[in-house]
């Protein structure tokens, strides 16, 4: 029954990272499997829910998108609060967006829960020809900073997007 919205676990996941790296596209891809060329730059905060079934458990993922607030670097502190997991996204074809990830991590550490689970997401991996960030740099940073993992995705080609959310859900299940 599609109207049955019962669940065993509910996890709040937030997406952070520079503007234009594909955060909204990642959420859309996770939600519907659709990729839309022009993403909205609506100001505000919005969330999407999808319930995954993992090892017989219904895991409701409530995924929050900054919806444009990140452009002004004025993300409200409440956005970070009560997040179980955070995906820090950058664009593999823009080094500056990777260099920003530490600043986003610090913001998360400042305003988020002490035990928030973090994954480093290198999006736009379909732009291999324009790559400016070697995957090894991401792995190194993730390890140094105690993140769960570094992963590369393509919201456009729907590669590894589902995997990223499932990986996070599995880890959160283990911890809760
Ligand atoms: P946000 O500002 O971080 O939310 O980024 P958006 O989701 O709005 O995406 C910014 C731009 O990047 C849009 O033009 C998207 O179509 C494009 N984009 C998003 N994901 C990908 C991807 O995986 N590959 C490519 N080539 N473009 C993408
Ligand atoms: Mg957006």
From TrEMBL:
Gene Ontology CC terms: Golgi apparatus; phagocytic vesicle membrane
Membrane topology: Lipid-anchor
GO molecular function, one term: GTPase activity
Superkingdom to which the source organism belongs: Eukaryota
UniProt keyword list: Cytoplasmic vesicle, Golgi apparatus, GTP-binding, Lipoprotein, Membrane, Methylation, Nucleotide-binding, Phosphoprotein, Prenylation
Localization annotation: Cytoplasmic vesicle, Phagosome membrane; Golgi apparatus, trans-Golgi network membrane
Family designation: Belongs to the small GTPase superfamily. Rab family.
Protein name: Ras-related protein Rab-43
Native source organism of the sequence: Sinocyclocheilus rhinocerous
Portion held of the full protein: 5 to 180 of 218
């Amino acid at each position: 029954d599609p109207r049955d919205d019962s669940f065993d676990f509910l996890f709040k996941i937030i997406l952070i990272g520079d503007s234009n790296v594909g955060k909204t596209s990642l959420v859309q891809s996770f939600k519907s499997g659709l990729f839309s060329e022009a993403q909205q730059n609506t100001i505000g905060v919005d969330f999407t829910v999808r319930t995954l079934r993992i090892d017989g458990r219904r895991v409701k993922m409530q995924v929050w998108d900054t919806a444009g607030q990140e452009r002004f670097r004025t993300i409200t502190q409440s956005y970070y609060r009560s997040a179980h997991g955070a995906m820090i996204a950058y664009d593999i074809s823009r080094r500056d967006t990777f260099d920003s990830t530490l600043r986003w991590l610090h913001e998360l550490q400042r305003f988020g829960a002490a035990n928030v689970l973090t994954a480093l997401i290198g999006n736009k991996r379909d732009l291999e020809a324009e790559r400016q960030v070697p995957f090894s740099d991401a792995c190194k940073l993730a390890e140094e900073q105690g993140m769960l993992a570094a992963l590369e995705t393509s919201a456009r080609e729907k590669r590894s997007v589902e995997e990223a959310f499932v990986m996070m859900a599995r880890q959160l299940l283990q911890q809760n």
